[in-house]
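Transporter substrate-binding domain-containing protein
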Amino acid sequence: MFRLLPQALATAVGLLAFCAGGARADGLADIQKSGVLKVGVFADFPPFSSVGADMSLKGYDIDVAKALATGLKVKLALVEVTGQNRIPYLTGHRVDVLMSVGKNAEREKVIAFTQAYAPYYIAVIGPKATDVKGASDLADKSISVNRGTLEDTSLTAAAPKSADIRRFDNYSAVMQAFLSGQVQLMAVGNDVGAQVLAKHTDIAPEQKFQLLSSPDHLAINKEEPALLKVLDDAIDGMKKDGSLDKVSTQWLGKPLDPKDLVD
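Predicted structure tokens:
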């Protein structure tokens, strides 16, 4: 079992939570008072998070969330979210932290981000027989995508007006639309795409081109500096002690490359 967090994190948490004059230490104080860290995760986003054979959520994000809760010495509550409701869940304080969030200027107006903790890029995938080499080739093509996600905004920005973008409410529906022939292509992350490339050789799927490289961050509400520092320190600790490499090797099949964590 890998070491979850450096021992120093617990000390940092205490110092930040009970800082000068008893002032409120933002979301961190609320988490410690309740004894629960509420983390928003997708339920169908393997290998980052998905339901295992025992009906519990498993994956890269789940292991990292468990590490965070252990470091904070609180219980972990996993809250299932979708691409369209997860930001409102965060801003409405139904969750304390969101996993697997891509950082962009629009989102930074509403929420705050930790440093990157996982590699992620978005690609267009289609059958080998479909001739697509770049965004201009999406003209008059049908493409499935998860509504309200970074994949959706990236595809919408890049695709010609004649592209038929079909939005679905979860990744399972996005993949099913592609595999059943409802659409010609799909725009997904490297994680989802890897499953299709590996398991569906009958249609010879392949990655056509990348839309965007956007490593995953934890997202929290703005104006929560104490919580932000604790989470950043936790990610630093997992990088330094090798536990994040172990998570990556287990779920993504390779250790982390620092270049993959640069926005």
